[in-house]
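Both lines are retained for reference:
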Amino acid sequence: MAGRNSLFIPGPTNMPERIRLAMDINTEDHRAMSAPDFMVPLFEDLKKIFRTDKGEVIVFPSSGTGGWEAAITNTLSPGDKVLTARFGQFSSLWIDSCRALGVVVEDIDVPWGEGAPVGQIAERLAADTQHEIKGVIVCHNETATGVTSDIKGVREALNTCNHPALLYVDGISSIGAIEFEMDAWGVDLAVAGSQKGFMLPTGLGIIGVSQKALQAGETASCPRFYFDFKMMINQTRTGFGPYTPAMGLLRGLRASVDVLLEEGMENVWQRHHRLAEGVRQAVVAWGLSTCAKTPAWQSDTVTGVMVPEGIDGQEIVKRAYQDYNLSLGGGLTQVAGKLFRIGHLGDLNECMLFSALGGAEMVMRDMGMDIEPGKGVGAAIEYWHKNK
């Protein structure tokens, strides 16, 4: 098919040319004496993305899922209990990973389309007077539904009852795109991946770790070797690593951090909010609704668009790709066929999003939906014009 693919899945995301070119390098010696000149500043600057002065940032050659396994195994022991909420595909997967590693999970079932239930979490923590709960795990941005949770509120719940549990946050589709404050929100472990807000290929698990979490590692007995925090921190402080690093990806990460910091994190967050609101205005103009049940839950990195009864959301995704070379996200498990997803994070502007909105309109019309041509695109234009 002529033309380039229009990529609007919620990750991996579009890659700026500057970042792609940064990775287009010859093989280099990762043990060269000049390596610390590159590595040490990179890890310091990563802290600015996570918004931490007190913690450490660790990078493993892995995916975000590997980052989660690292967070769990470095801070917990088999038989330890954690509290979490299940409100989407990815919050469910973290529950599965905990249980596979021998961690006991107390989970709260939440309807998909809502986020972490701060009130219920607060009640469970207040009732845990013996402090059996060692960690509270929250998916900040549930990619399957387009729902963002209140991490600050969860921290306040922990503080209100003076509970010592660690706060674990899945920030894979939020960090580097929407507001995230590791120190200010008291986050102990924040997991990101290279393929979303960082605009890189998949391959790096990036983890922010508080000093409290590092202390927990002194007694945590889950087996670990490749994902050992202490080994990785001790080596990267010298500018090297305990094993061969993914140098090409790290060169790209250096460029990614530069791109984000040059724009300014507050500006990055504002750009994502503005673009996301334009998409949401389009959804309203189509006469449809988002999977997120209230505006408070709506994500600034991905929108789940609910489709009417009798329309298959998966078919919309299939036809978008086959007929228009447009990649949209499909519904997963509980919402499979009930929605399609528009990813709007990373290297993105208004004109790029026009292709997602216009393409979605064409596909929906092809499937017999009563969508007036240009209605959604026009609503987005109107919003963006008024909110420059």
